Amino acid sequence: MAVPVQTHLEAAGLVERGGLWVDADELVGAVISPLGVFIGWVDVAWAGPHTPELQLREVVHLPPGRLELDVAEEVRKAAQRGQAGRRECRYCGHRKMPGHMHSKDVCQGCAERELGVVH
Fold this sequence. Notes:
Elements: H1 5-11, E1 15-17, E2 20-22, E3 28-33, E4 36-48, E5 51-62, H2 67-85, E6 87-88, E7 95-96, E8 101-103, E9 106-107, H3 108-115
Antiparallel strand pairs: 1-2, 2-3, 3-4, 4-5, 6-7, 8-9
Helix pairs in contact: 1-2
């Protein structure tokens, strides 16, 4: 009998939040589909100035036959890609996902505090 997909995701440290499986830091995400699992690093897209939506970047597809062997490894790789994709703010020094950056080297919070930008 096949192990449920959810069991593989939980074993890899992910929990379900509104249809998206994420790790504790929301660095990695996964989506379950009839075609398997899609795993990537988490970023933010903005539908409007006050409407952030999580999105997956650099997504890898694992068909149902590869789940037992590859879920934990792909989650680990997605976390590495997510860390590499984060950018450092020149004001606060924190590394943020691209969707939380006002520009290449200024996060949204510092853009408001330091530059007077209103989001």
